[in-house]
Design a protein that fits this description.
The complex is a heterodimer.
Chain A lengths: L16 H9 L3 H11 L11 H10 L6 E6 L8 H8 L1 H15 L3 E6 L7 H13 L16 E6 L9 H8 L23 E5 H13 L1 H5 L9 E8 L5 E6 L4 H8 L6 E4 L5 E4 L17 E5 L5 H15 L5 H19 L4 H17 L3 H5 L2 H15 L13
Parallel strand pairs in A: 1-2, 1-4, 2-3, 5-9
Antiparallel strand pairs in A: 5-6, 7-8, 7-9
Helix pairs in contact in A: 1-5, 1-8, 2-3, 2-5, 5-8, 11-12, 11-15, 12-13
Chain B lengths: L2 H18 L6 H12 L4 H11 L3 H10 L11 E6 L2 H5 L2 H12 L12 E6 L11 E3 L2 E3 L4 H16 L2 H8 L2
Parallel strand pairs in B: 1-2
Antiparallel strand pairs in B: 1-3, 3-4
Helix pairs in contact in B: 1-2, 1-3, 3-4, 6-7, 7-8
Classes of the chains: A alpha/beta, B alpha+beta.
Bound molecules: flavin mononucleotide, iron/sulfur cluster (SF4) and FE2/S2 (inorganic) cluster.
Iron/sulfur cluster binds next to α12 and α14 of chain A.
């Protein structure tokens, strides 16, 4: 099995998360939350919700049973940075979970690890065991009287939707991974209806870093509205795919230069539920205020058939929709049918206009983020590559993957 | 199913429930274990799990059929899952798919008659920088080439024909 990090050195490699844990445990709980809030850090899982605010909500809830969940479901196509973090920097993630537990008053942490990463379960459990032995988990963590915190690893079973936080919670409780209605939000009523913080792997690891290096250090990276550094998962048509660390605000063009993808005709940013950015827009920035992203970048070389790409994404969503609500279940099927019609050259321009309306309906009427975003990639591909798609010669199935 | 087999299954599941607790949260870990040991979750197994967790068997069925990795159908000793998502498609997964079908003698979605292999598609498995990627049970293979498909199949066959104890070591990571 080859696990590796290409690209530049990661900041995570130079930071001792347990120093951060000890620094945090010396603080008042409210000050821990304020520190994270002051850093301006937004969630690294994609949605970009301010982490300090999330911890604050959960901390304000009454109740002696609260939970910290580390979302290690990493199912978004083109995303693999959490795998590298869990492989190489698990201590940092666990330190971050423990800090979060202290901040909100939780005593139980759960890592929801995707089934595809089952091979990581034993190494992670070994790290947890070591931490217990070192007094970094268990009763009176680091000698702080009355602060008990422990972590378990739960395994997913092959369902992308379980990355959505309420579906993840349903799955942990032993049910089908079907997203819940919100409100109530997990910070109020999450796992077993107790206040629960669900954070991405990278968010938790980055939080631990803030307590070692300080808020000012963290804010020295990135932009005003997207502070800090970010891990990017880069794959597709480039010379050096892998996990890279860049500050938020880097332009698409600069990023492509680093990874050897200079001749790309487009990049998909944010995975299948993200957006397709054509060459003409490569001056745009990777940041929540411009192109929001969990860090997935798939590079498409000049020869790629963008309709085939759209079709691939739609097949993914048809397969992974939980089927609970109609706009998503039927909408994605209709989108996929349309992509097939476009391929055969039997889709009218009028129907394409209707698809835009359908996409709008899916965005507002779907229950969770999957249906709300699943048509975005197709729509942006149609927008930027409409001419290429409408004027293409009808292709045989076998021509889909160029050699 | 033979009574003795059913008894063995009941004993397996009882031991799991003792370890994990009889709460609903134990359902998925139990099904994962049953699936791993028995390569499927048949109706007897569902009934036994339902009895021990004190829930309706249809609840067990509904959960098992939701998750790709808990597929209750009887599957092969080795479930080979090839990633079909975008980065692996760009990396040439179609050639690997053809080679897998040829080497294993089954099409996608099928289980061979000898019960050794099941071939399936999977969605992105987080190995996108090293595609094409595939899983054989829990084991990940990356940068798979058509030649390596043959080696992977041979590795599995060797593990399969070995002693039961070695067999386990052979493919579990
Ligand atoms: C369909 C869907 C899939 C998701 N998958 C993941 C995932 O794999 N990992 C993740 O961290 N967040 C995922 N999310 C976002 C989570 O719901 C949640 O916002 C996130 O875990 C919060 O963590 P953060 O604030 O630290 O980013 C997904 C959301 C949706 C709608
Ligand atoms: S939007 Fe799709 S995935 Fe989300 S709840 Fe509705 S059907 Fe399920
Ligand atoms: S696209 Fe195949 S592993 Fe991600």
């Amino acid at each position: 099995m080859s696990i590796q990090t290409q690209g530049n050195t990661l900041t995570f490699a130079s930071i001792d998360g347990d120093a951060g844990l000890k620094a945090a445990l010396a603080m008042k709980r409210a000050d821990i939350i304020d520190t994270v809030a002051d850093s301006g850090m937004k969630g690294r899982g994609g949605a970009g919700f301010p982490t300090g605010m999330k911890w604050n909500f959960a901390g304000a809830e009454k109740g002696d049973k609260k939970y910290i969940i580390c979302n290690a479901d990493e199912g978004e196509p083109g995303t693999f940075k959490d795998r590298v973090i869990l492989t190489e920097f698990a201590d940092l993630v666990f330190a971050g979970m423990t800090i979060a537990g202290r901040a909100i008053g939780a005593s139980q942490g759960i890592v929801y690890l995707r089934g595809e990463y089952t091979y990581l379960r034993s190494p992670l459990n070994a790290v947890i065991k070591k931490r217990r032995a070192a007094g970094l988990l268990g009763e009176d963590v680091c000698g702080v009287k009355g602060f008990d915190f422990d972590i378990i690893v739960a395994l997913g079973a092959g369902a992308y939707i379980c990355g959505e936080e309420t579906a993840l919670i349903e799955s942990l409780e032993g049910f089908r991974g079907e997203p819940r209605n919100r409100p109530p939000f997990p910070v109020v009523a999450g796992y077993r209806y107790a206040p629960t913080v669900v954070n991405n792997v990278e968010t938790l690891a980055s939080a631990a870093c803030i307590f070692v290096k300080g808020v000012d250090w963290f804010k020295s990276f990135g932009t005003d509205r997207s502070t800090g550094f970010k891990l990017f998962s880069i794959s597709g048509d480039c010379a050096k795919p892998g996990v890279y660390e860049f500050p938020f605000g880097i332009t698409v063009a600069d990023l492509l230069k680093e990874v050897g993808g200079g001749d790309a005709k487009a990049v998909q940013i944010g995975g299948a539920s993200g957006t397709c950015v054509p060459r003409a827009q490569f001056t745009r920035q990777m940041a929540f205020e411009d192109i929001p992203t969990g860090g997935s970048v798939v590079v498409f070389g000049p020869q790629r058939d963008m309709l085939a790409v759209a079709e691939n994404f739609l097949e993914f969503f048809v397969d992974e929709s939980c089927g609970q609500c109609t706009p998503c279940r039927i909408g994605n099927t209709k989108m996929l049918e349309a992509a097939e019609q476009l391929k055969e050259g039997t889709c009218s321009a009028e129907y394409v206009a209707e698809l835009r309306e359908l996409s709008g309906t899916m965005q507002v009427a779907s229950k969770c983020g999957l249906g709300q975003t699943s048509s975005n990639a197709f729509m942006s591909i149609l927008e930027h590559f409409g001419d290429e798609i409408m004027s293409r010669p009808v292709q045989a199935e076998t021509a889909r993957t160029p050699a | 199913m033979l009574v003795t087999q059913q008894e063995k299954l009941r004993a397996d599941v009882t031991a799991l429930v003792d370890r994990l607790g009889p709460g609903r949260s134990s359902l998925i870990p139990i099904l994962q274990d049953v699936k791993r040991r028995h390569h499927g979750v048949d109706s007897d197994a569902m009934q036994i799990v339902a009895d021990l967790l004190d829930i309706h068997p249809v609840e067990v069925y509904s959960v098992a059929t939701f998750y790709a990795f808990l597929n209750p159908a009887a599957q092969g000793e080795f479930v080979v899952r090839l990633c079909r998502t975008v980065s692996c498609e760009l990396a040439g997964k179609d050639a690997i798919a053809r080679q897998l079908e040829t080497e294993l003698g089954i099409a996608f979605g099928e289980t061979g008659e000898d019960g050794r292999f099941t071939l399936e598609w999977a969605n992105c498995m987080g190995m996108c920088d090293q595609g094409p990627a595939l899983l054989v049970n829990d084991r990940v293979y990356t940068r798979v080439t058509p030649e390596r498909v043959r080696e992977i199949a041979a590795e599995c066959r060797a593990a399969y024909s070995g002693h039961a104890a070695e067999r386990k070591e052979g493919y579990l990571v």
